[in-house]
């Protein structure tokens, strides 16, 4: 059911962050520890988004297992960034396996990933999708639940909602429309990480200068803290705050 990683801190190479650590995101493509009923490997593509020194977003995506992509290995060794979002994909049965279906999705300075699935797709989200402009629906990068979630979240952000509130409200809307969905979302603007846990795993690790969030811990074991289920995490290099999503979600139903 996919795995993702977000990082903020001193610039590191993509290889140092994603390929070289113990139980790295690369290893999680073939040997994940905590898929929770959502497949066994993450071999249906991958993506990495990062911020250049001028703040512009760059991205690399491919519809192949990360371990097969030699071009990415070279890119990962050469590219350094202080803000990264990356994901490896286990496609839901029936959904396309294409680069456009791989997180992170992006617009302007945003990077977005969804770890999970929406139950009853696509019928369950039809009413929510009807709020979107026709052009937004016609230009979805892929016919997937994750791409539609990004379009719905992007609409909220464009309307001026605070990012943490936009993420919170989206989760609650989708849960009301499609109960039993798995909705671990991850959003970054290069300065903060906003993530949710909804029936899937998430961990956070802070140091004096950095913060990382991940579906599964990687690198040194010390310092990782599991985020409780049904929570919203907002983190930057100075702080990490966790609040419950459960009370609001029950009120929205």
Q: Roughly how many Å apart are the termini? A: 26 Å
How large is the share of residues in beta strands? 25-35%
Overall mean pLDDT stands at 94
Order of helices and strands: EHHEEHEEEHHHHEEEEEEEH
Give me the Rg, rounded: 17 Å
Strand order in the sheet with the most strands: 3-2-4-1-10-9-11
Q: Could you list the spans in which at least 5 consecutive residues all have pLDDT below 50?
A: 248-253
Write the layout of secondary structure elements.
Elements: E1 3-13, H1 14-19, H2 25-30, E2 46-51, E3 57-62, H3 70-78, E4 80-88, E5 105-107, E6 110-117, H4 126-129, H5 134-138, H6 145-158, H7 163-177, E7 182-188, E8 193-197, E9 203-206, E10 211-214, E11 224-226, E12 231-235, E13 240-244, H8 246-252
Antiparallel strand pairs: 1-4, 1-10, 2-3, 2-4, 5-6, 6-7, 7-8, 8-12, 9-10, 9-11, 12-13
Helix pairs in contact: 6-7, 7-8
Walk me through what this model shows:
With 253 residues, the chain is an alpha+beta fold. Helix content is 26%, strand content 30%. The chain has eight helices and 13 strands. The strands form two sheets. The chain has a seven-stranded antiparallel β-sheet with strand order 3-2-4-1-10-9-11. The protein has a six-stranded antiparallel β-sheet with strand order 5-6-7-8-12-13. Strand 2 and strand 3 form a beta hairpin. Helix 6 crosses helix 7 and helix 7 crosses helix 8. The chain is globular and about 45 Å long. The C terminus is likely disordered.
